[in-house]
Amino acid sequence: MRRRSAPAAWTALAAAGALLLAGCGGGGAGKSDPPGGPSAAPRVQLPRLDGEKLEVSAVWTGPEQANFTKVLEEFEKRTGASVAFVPAQDPIVTFLGTKIAGGQPPDVALLPQVGALTAAVQNKWVQPVGPEAKAQLDKNYSQGWKELGAVGGTQYGVYYKAANKSLVWYNAKAFEAAGVQPPKTWKELIAAADTLSASGTPAVSVAGADGWTLTDWFENVYLSQAGPEKYDKLAKHEIKWTDDSVRQALTTLAELFGRKDFLAGGPSGALATEFPKSVTQTFTGGDRPAAAMVFEGDFVAVNIAQTEAKIGEDALVFPFPAVGAKAPVVSGGDVAVALKPSKGAQALLTFLASPDAAEIQARQGGFVSPNKAVDPAAYPNAIQRRIAEALIAAGDDFRFDMSDQAPAAFGGTPGAGEWKALQDFLANPSDVAGTQARLEADAAKAYGN
């Protein structure tokens, strides 16, 4: 299953986002609370794997990779196995295909797209989840997250990491200096951007060098403006990218992207900015940073931690503004799969499906788990705790990242498909019709219709 349809959960998550704004939007609210300590005893039993060597691959680097390594170290401690992290490149399907063709696949991989999971199953690369991991899934996960890790009714994956990709993080000092309040609507966002830029601080840091961030911009605007039903249809390519709803969304996005003074470094600077820098440059420089705000998911916290800014004080967050009647909430995530029929691979899936593993990474920040057994106290501050609680409150139903549902050739490949078309759009936001035509041509080819 490639998505879940959920107006009720959409509303619940949006309401929780409003709580984020109310509880963590200014003043002393949202300051860090003492992080939860480790559990008194392991809640999942793992086999001894003394002498066994495992490899794990994911498209993670920097702090994210370092934080996940702490999880692997605990697995080593409990089992006696030796685990090596092997960084993967996008698209991960191509990376894994090369490894498999060479007879050296990793034991476990974390796939960042639903489309990548489907492709891996179709290529017969992955093993079904074993009974121990399945028991953890049944105990700790909602039906919706289990179904996202299944293909054709068979459970193949464990959604270890989730994301709320409808958040805007902002520099509190820059907002205060400009006299700007967090906007609740798109119209208010554009007005705030105008005020910020006039004050001498560009409004937004856009990671245009990483095309996936641009797909997230589009998806949030489209979901709020066109609504959930059209979002689902476009995700399945049941309507074309030349549809008028896509034109409207691109035209709206151009209100922001089309103002050079709104973007840190202008369009050319944005296109040269990778995601980590888009965050760090927003939270350095006191009240005169390179930009006043940066859009992306809860994982932004990992990169904020590389600066001197404190989440809840210097770095605050508000929900992505409503373009239509409701504010959007887009979710994403990484699914762990076993590529070898080994005892060690299944044991690692079991561990990743347990709250024990998720709580280790939760304490590091910039991580949200869909595992409902995770202790909320494991999250290091009130902002991240509320984000996690909102995700769990959504239950079985939610809207999943559209590009992650698409075939990787369209929605998950650097320099191609949707990523490239939206980078070209960032360079020339006036070319709405041309962007639609390129998107539709690439989508038709990738979907085969």
Explain what this protein looks like in three dimensions.
- Keywords: Signal, Transport.
- The protein is an alpha/beta fold.
- It is about 45% helix and about 10% strand.
- It folds into 2 domains: about 55-165 and about 330-395, Periplasmic binding protein-like II (D-Maltodextrin-Binding Protein, domain 2), CATH 3.40.190; about 165-330 and about 415-449, Periplasmic binding protein-like II (D-Maltodextrin-Binding Protein, domain 2, 3-Layer(aba) Sandwich).
- The protein starts with 6 loop residues before the first helix and ends with a helix.
- The longest helix is centred in the N-terminal third of the chain and has 18 residues, at about 5-25.
- The strands form 3 sheets. Strands 2-1-3-11-6 form a 5-stranded mixed beta sheet.
Number of domains: 2
Put simply, the count of helices is: 21
Mind describing the biggest β-sheet?
5 strands, mixed
Strand content: 5-15%
CATH class annotation of the largest domain: Alpha Beta
